[in-house]
């Protein structure tokens, strides 16, 4: 497996997921760009969001993903996250039916209960993707879809940038970041029993440059990826 340390050009102090998101929570929604994930969700040919019966939102954070799901017709969503402060914001928004503090690799959610499982912008925090794909498969019903939106390995390697935030005191702080090749996703998904149904990659385009003019040097590089998996049913 690749180590982010081999690509790190920032050298920011690094904290674990709970510590990092526990602090980032105050500014999280102001700093995460929809171009990263929402733009890809909007491009997907499936799922047919309005027909989803019950969704599991893994790494639900503040409810940003759930807000988009609800806007697109998904009315029943259960969320799981490791960080109490992120969950507290999600709880206050009342977008989820149930919220649970747990690891995405061991959610405690019911077997075969969901026709949609989604995990957006969490993959780089996992040392190994296989337990996530296996857990998503366990909680998915036959025929269900698993949508995963990932931080593109090419961008992490090229930019040398970890997932990070700026603290109240102005320090740039990294949250433990791992690099997963697209083939790591493919092999983890296939190994867990999923079939790949669709994949999209988001590139640094005019929209991104308008948000981050300094990223002109990354123009046309991929920054995120969405994979849609189907459970045999
Ligand atoms: C970048 S946020 C994404 C939140 C939301 N899905 C969105 O797109 O805005 C990553 C979230 O994943 C959570 N997370 C990271 N690793 C996790 C794990 N192993 N188990 C559960 N949650 C995790 C963090 O606490 C954080 O809330």
TrEMBL record:
Keyword line:
Methyltransferase, Transferase
The Methyltransferase type domain is annotated at: 57-148
From the record, what ranges are coiled-coil? none
Q: Tell me which Gene Ontology terms the entry assigns under biological process.
A: methylation
Write out the GO MF terms.
S-adenosylmethionine-dependent methyltransferase activity
- Pfam families in the cross-refs: Methyltransf_11
Gene3D superfamilies for the chain? Vaccinia Virus protein VP39 (3.40.50.150)
Q: Does the keyword Cytoplasm apply?
A: no
Instruction: Point out the signal peptide segment.
Output: none
Q: Which InterPro entries does its entry note?
A: Methyltransf_11, SAM-dependent_MTases_sf
Q: Which residues cross the membrane?
A: none
PANTHER family named among the record's database cross-references = METHYLTRANSFERASE
Recorded protein name is: SAM-dependent methyltransferase
Q: What is the lineage of its organism?
A: Bacteria, Bacillati, Actinomycetota, Actinomycetes, Streptosporangiales
